[in-house]
Specification:
Blueprint (H helix, E strand, L loop, with lengths): L2 E12 L8 E6 L3 E6 L4 E6 L3 E14 L9 H19 L1 E12 L3 E6 L4 H7 L1 H8 L3 H16 L5 H12 L6 H5 L9 E3 L6 E3 L18 E2 L2
Antiparallel strand pairs: 1-2, 1-7, 2-3, 3-4, 5-6, 6-7, 8-9, 8-10
Helix pairs in contact: 4-5
């Protein structure tokens, strides 16, 4: 099945029919990545063979706002100020995920923001895609074959072992398509939305509090 990243935002680029600020859906298939424009009804298909580089980066989870420390005169005033500041911090603190995807192609470049997963988690989710991309790079395959042959020449690999590894490396079945077909959803079940602050957090079954707002996760909603 394809891997789909919904609600992405184009940050910029050139050579492709995209505009900064436009909302797109990024769909990774067997041999192409598609940039679907829901509002314009247009899809830009980029074959893996024309992708020079696919990079994932960004700061990940970023929290802004808050900063109220409380105050007032006397003990009662201080307690009142601290209580008010806690409420103000909760109301004004905003947390979002900033993950950037960069495609460099024969035609140009595309820079995209995706807020569903942090960079590390997204890179893991797209492991099969990166495996597939490597097998569209003839120089990478040739380099690996030369390395195996050099190891055989140094008697670190047997001829039989070298032949088997080269066959696995150059076989169409090793291109990652089967891995892509069995790829897990991009949003793992441990990524949930806090029912109080509404932010996306990574939490296991044993966690009972949101580490962003500090409130309980009872009635939490799983990310679909």
């Amino acid at each position: 099945m394809p891997i789909v990243l919904a609600d992405c935002t184009v940050l910029g680029g050139s050579g492709h029919p995209v505009a900064a600020g436009e909302s797109v859906t990024v769909r990774f298939g067997e041999d192409t990545v598609e940039l679907e424009h829901p509002h314009r009804g247009v899809t830009d298909k980029i074959h893996y063979a024309e992708i020079l580089e696919c990079a994932i980066g960004g700061p990940g989870t970023v929290t802004t706002g808050g900063g109220f420390i409380g105050g007032g005169f006397g003990v009662a005033g201080a307690l009142e100020g601290i209580a008010i500041s806690s409420v103000l911090n909760l109301l004004t603190t905003r947390t979002r995920v900033l993950t950037m995807i960069h495609f460099s192609t024969h035609r140009g470049e595309v820079f995209i923001h995706y807020g569903g997963l942090e960079p590390g988690a997204l890179r893991i989710a797209l492991s099969a895609v990166f495996t597939r991309l490597r097998h569209f790079n003839p120089s990478w395959i040739e380099e690996r074959v030369r390395r195996l042959e050099a190891l055989q020449a140094q008697e670190l690999l047997s001829a039989e072992h070298t032949e088997r590894l080269i066959k696995e490396l150059t076989s169409p079945d090793s291109s990652g398509s089967s891995l892509l077909a069995a790829a897990p959803p991009v949003a793992p079940s441990e990524w949930i939305k806090c029912p109080h602050c509404g932010q996306l957090i990574r939490s296991g079954p044993q966690d009972v509090k949101c580490y962003l707002c500090g409130r309980g996760l009872t009635g939490r909603a799983e990310v679909s």
